[in-house]
Here is the input.
Amino acid sequence: MKDFMMIFIGADYQELGLSPEQLQERMGKWFAWNEKMQKQGIVKSGDALMPQVKRVSGPNRTVTDAPLIEGKELIGGYYIVQAENAEAVVEIAKDYPDYDLDGTVEIREVMVFEQ
Amino acid sequence: MEHKVVDHLFRHHYGKMVAILTRFFGLSHIETIEDAVQDTFIKATSQWRTQIPDNPEAWLNRVAKNRTIDILRSIQAEKNRNLAITPGASMLQIDELFLDHEVADSQLRMIFVACHPTLNPNEQIAFALKTISGFSIKEIAAALLTKEETISKRLTRAKKTIIERDIQFQYPDPEAIHNRMERVMKVVYLTFNEGFHSTNKEKLIKEDLCGEAIRLCQLLLKKEQFRSGSLYALFALLCFHMSRLESKISSDNQLVNLKNQDRTKWYFPLIKMGNSAMHKAMDYDDSSVYHYEAAIAFEHLNAKTFKDTNWKKVSYWYEQLHTFEPKMFTLLNHATVCLQLNDLEKTYQILKSIDVAELGQRGYLYYGCYAEYYLKKGEKDLAISFLDKALLETSNKLEREFLMKKREKLL
Here is the structure.
């Protein structure tokens, strides 16, 4: 078994101006997905991220508050799950609730450092 | 631990929290409050992914309250004012406002604000759907078949008026209650009609709008001072109509008219509720269009089959309704009933007296009625030409399909 990170990009609820009803519906889907993965015992960790961004870049360590990032590029959260291979994670990621809001899941294998 | 969140909790709770917080912080902060409540739900959608709190409502209340205070504090810091956010009020008081009866009280105040006479009727409905019922601008636009931009403008204007006129978060004075209640009932009635009669909508939107109107009506009936024969009659009317909603749209989203509805699908508990409200309405002396409309709706529900309908009684009630408040649409309905009674002469007389321009978007129904009239007279060609006129008058998909089907049968 390997560890994979599923990174959720885009579909910023705040920017999309979803209604309370729609938000509740989304919440229900996320909850169901989380529960399904928990039952399979594959979740190692996961978090949702606040939309505010600070960026440090360049040799001068320039700090920018980055509203420059468009909602569709914003990372909203991640899960680390255990799976046989990337293809298996692709299957898991099919339940991600926000494809219809132009959300994307990026799947990356976590690198293991040899002892 | 597994928790299920009640259906529509977010939407219903939106209105509650906005009302409570507005009562505490004042109408002048309504924009800030709405933002804070919205933020709260966004937060909940992230946090509740893994674990739904034991008491979701308490969680929402707490977070919304804190968020509002935070935002107001930062606004004040920016303005560099030394005023306390809440002069004379303690945090203890705000918690008391979250008690059930206070919540209902706050929401009722909001209904009266929404129906304030300085707002125009379009603004009143948009404001009520947003602030009391928790619909988004997009949802209101879909519900009212209006552009999002138009709804935004209406909401902005309504809020501007509220602030400029310094409208207070209060009930109207006792002497103004009667007039204001008429407005309130009208807004409830129109909200319901938007859901029930407009056909160009998904079933879900229909249910939501109708459900909201009934909820508001129930809220008003809770308070002795707002009760009247008219309010009970309105409630009865909404219950009667609502009991048929399920049977009005077929599984493939086709419109089903009264004649072809599956009467076993009518929801009996709502009919019962409507009946008892109608009885209560009789304890008061006032009368209203709602009385007559409820009487008509009841006659339809009372018939086992379409053929069994007591058309004479229905016709009588339409006559009464038109005497009470003359309206072209009532006349049109009356003409349809006369057709059922095979009183072709009277049908023609009534149709002739109708000014179709006043029917607005419902003009197609007028031509549809003429078509039926000529069909009964055996004048097929005229019937077809009136169906064509009806088709020209409506862009509504369901309605058009319905008319087309009728037309095909005649060819």
About this structure: The CA atoms of residues 33 and 95 of chain A lie 6 Å apart. The helical segments of chain A are 13-16, 20-40, 86-93. The mean pLDDT of chain A is 91.
